[in-house]
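Supplementary Methods. Inverse-folding protocol.

Structures were first reduced to a discrete structure-token string of length 748. This string, shown here, constituted the complete conditioning input.
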């Protein structure tokens, strides 16, 4: 019998196929030539599981967000075995040693020991929220980015942060604030990773370790925390004078924002945009808050750090919970994409420079609304990973040397902080666009990749994944011409101008803002131990403005030096009113009004006032001698627990006499001196609110008490009315400007 006869079978027809031996690398035979027709990924071979994916907590993945939370009624191990007891270790007798076989003890303690991950080197202290971005359709002439189309809704996750402090530091320190937005677009994730200040301390990313080492606590004593008021910071910025522009922004009111909801945001760098016709332009991104840009006073910020270190976190979460959703317009400044990459003499690749809005107006292109708080801080706010290299079609980077370094640094830091290269698979970081990469394995791998050919080109997986052709919309690295040059470690000549824009910022401030800047420099430099460093920084102030230098020098007991002169070719600009925070009126959403009550005289009008404030999207806070209720309205704060810095304005609804616990030996606030009959803690609350330029109001017995304490009805920002409705109306008018700055005369 021939071999062919031996392999034949009377039961098999000629068109039937033999069962293949196991080990086939792909479910379909490969083609001879490289596949060129795009197709979906091949299905998994029939021997591989068809189990539906499950969440980290053991249930089948489901659109319901609760499916990723804890499941069932009973306590279990992390493998799902139910437990009867978790309060006692397994021991050899009630007083005997703990046994090594106690797997529940070992699992519980071991997991606890590994709950912490490395905090961010910078921006460790943060708060975040989910929201939605809606495009206006006004960016079409500049960019083809799909998420900016008219009416297009895109989910977002926004994280705000301080820069220098550790994760456990306070919120209201003087510092730059991070403003990072993750757009989950259907063309891929776009991360706009910016700050509340439009410039940076350095022009080149190679200096980033230097500025952060200088700003962080001194390495020997690990102090001071979350502050720039120390020798190493001022040593660096006074020597590396390109940092002076960012520094004056930090010394301004921008360094101590009232709320994340009241901050501008900036993309810092210049980006390159491309529209549907392939035309390019250069652009800077801006966030404009609906509520305006407002700040704290320095004394207020320091008091808050002790009274409520979570002030900004709480403010953001409370506003969203109460329905006062924070909103911003996203805008762009657009510039011609010329060979020099400059505009009106300003180098667009220098991240220490701005383009005044008067020269290039900000064009609104979309609206951001934050409307949901995170479910879990660690899972979302702590594990979210931003990266300026996360780009989408229509938006590309420029040759800004700081931006170029950030493109590498953000990837690199996540590998350490989030335990490997798969941080993009953590739920908060997962794209909302289909992913078909060729990246495999690594720590934290959560995808279950079928197929055998994660390389290109291939035939075993049918050629999948295919590079997008010209007929398919995809990200394109724009073919930008690079000018010829010599490989060298040098910066353009235009980068040598370190002071013209610092002078622009100073000249754009109102007198009260200038007073605040003088006070900030005086405070910070007074904290420096070395006189040499103070004097060196005074020299930089002399290059900015004579009055600024003289006033700070006087506060420090130093001589004001003479300026040494400007850099040749510096571009001197007119003042930019857009840089000032003061002027205009703004919505009061989420503002808090303290209603100080006397339980002996409060009546039904208290509830009416409470609801009138709430219906105006503000937060009424009843402040009373003790807890409980007053006239049927729950008390939010007692005199002992309240502090003026928690509120945006104060309404005195009565004249509460000293309460039973107003004992200076028990509580220092009760020792506030004064000749009136009010509880001393109320007197202190009024005094602080007055000093911080907040509006004060009263009616009825409260009006008489306010006048008895020395506050006159014609004082700036003081409201004395006959009834509560009139008092609230006038108070709202005063609050609309944020603060009553005209209360205190200025000297500059």
């Amino acid at each position: 019998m021939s071999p062919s006869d031996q392999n034949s079978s009377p039961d098999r027809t000629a068109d039937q196929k033999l069962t293949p031996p196991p080990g086939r690398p792909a479910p379909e035979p490969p083609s001879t030539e490289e596949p060129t027709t795009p197709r979906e990924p091949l299905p998994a071979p029939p021997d591989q599981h068809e189990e539906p994916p499950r969440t980290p907590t053991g249930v089948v993945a489901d659109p319901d967000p609760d499916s990723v939370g804890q499941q069932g009624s009973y306590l279990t191990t992390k493998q799902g075995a139910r437990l009867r007891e978790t309060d006692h270790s397994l021991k050899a007798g009630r007083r005997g040693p703990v046994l090594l076989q106690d797997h529940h003890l070992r699992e519980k303690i071991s997991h606890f020991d590994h709950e912490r991950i490395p905090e961010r080197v910078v921006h460790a202290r943060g708060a975040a929220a989910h929201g939605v971005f809606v495009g206006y359709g006004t960016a079409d002439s500049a960019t083809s980015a799909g998420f900016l189309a008219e009416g297009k809704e895109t989910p977002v996750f926004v994280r705000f942060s301080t820069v220098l402090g550790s994760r456990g530091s306070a919120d209201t320190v003087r510092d730059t604030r991070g403003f990072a937005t993750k757009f989950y677009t259907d063309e891929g994730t776009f991360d706009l990773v910016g700050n509340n200040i439009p410039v940076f301390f350095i022009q080149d990313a190679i200096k980033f370790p230097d500025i952060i080492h200088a700003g962080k606590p001194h390495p020997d004593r690990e102090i001071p925390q979350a502050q720039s008021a120390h020798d190493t910071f001022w040593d660096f910025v006074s020597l590396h004078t390109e940092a002076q522009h960012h520094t004056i922004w930090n010394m301004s009111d921008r360094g101590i924002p009232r709320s994340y909801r009241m901050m501008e945001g900036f993309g810092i760098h210049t980006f390159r945009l491309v529209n549907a016709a392939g035309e390019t332009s250069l652009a800077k991104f801006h966030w404009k808050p609906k509520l305006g840009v407002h700040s704290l006073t320095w004394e207020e910020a320091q008091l808050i750090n002790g009274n409520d270190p979570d002030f900004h976190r709480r403010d953001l979460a409370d506003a969203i919970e109460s329905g006062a959703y924070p909103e911003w317009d996203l805008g762009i400044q657009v510039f011609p994409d010329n060979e020099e990459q400059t505009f009106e003499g300003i180098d667009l690749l220098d991240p220490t420079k701005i383009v005044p809005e008067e020269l290039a107006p900000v064009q609104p292109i979309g609206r951001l609304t934050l409307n949901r708080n995170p479910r879990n801080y660690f899972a979302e706010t702590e594990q979210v990973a931003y990266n300026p290299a996360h780009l989408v079609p229509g938006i590309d980077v420029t040759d800004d040397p700081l931006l170029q370094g950030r493109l590498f640094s953000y990837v690199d830091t996540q590998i350490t902080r989030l335990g490997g290269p798969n941080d993009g698979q953590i739920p908060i970081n997962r794209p909302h666009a289909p992913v078909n990469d060729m990246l495999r394995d690594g720590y934290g791998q959560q995808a279950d990749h079928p197929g055998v050919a994660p390389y290109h080109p291939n035939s075993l997986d049918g050629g999948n994944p295919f590079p997008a052709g010209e007929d398919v919309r995809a990200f394109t690295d724009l073919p930008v011409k690079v000018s010829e040059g010599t490989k060298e470690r040098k910066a353009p000549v235009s980068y040598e101008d370190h002071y013209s824009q610092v002078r622009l910022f100073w000249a754009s401030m109102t007198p009260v803002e200038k007073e605040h800047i003088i006070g900030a420099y005086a405070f910070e430099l007074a904290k420096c131990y070395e006189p040499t460093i103070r004097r060196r920084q005074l020299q930089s102030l002399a290059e900015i403005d004579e009055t600024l230098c003289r006033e700070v020098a006087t506060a420090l007991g130093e001589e004001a030096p003479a300026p040494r002169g400007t850099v040749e070719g510096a571009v001197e600009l007119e003042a930019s009113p857009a840089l000032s925070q003061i002027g205009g009126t703004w919505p009061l959403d989420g503002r808090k009004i303290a209603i100080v009550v006397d339980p002996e005289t409060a009546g039904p009008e208290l509830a009416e006032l409470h609801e009138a404030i709430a219906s105006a999207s503000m937060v009424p806070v009843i402040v009373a001698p003790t807890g409980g209720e007053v006239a049927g309205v729950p008390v939010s704060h007692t005199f002992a627990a309240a502090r003026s810095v928690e509120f945006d304005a104060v309404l005195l609804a009565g004249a509460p006499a000293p309460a039973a616990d107003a004992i200076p030996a028990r509580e220092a606030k009760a020792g506030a001196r004064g000749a009136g009959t009010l509880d001393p803690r109320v007197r202190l609350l009024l005094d602080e609110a007055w000093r911080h330029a907040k509006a004060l109001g009263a009616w009825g017995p409260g009006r008489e008490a306010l006048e008895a304490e020395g506050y006159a009805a014609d004082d700036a920002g003081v409201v004395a009315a006959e009834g509560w409705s009139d008092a609230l109306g006038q108070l709202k008018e005063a609050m609309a400007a944020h603060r009553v700055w005209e209360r205190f005369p200025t000297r500059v």
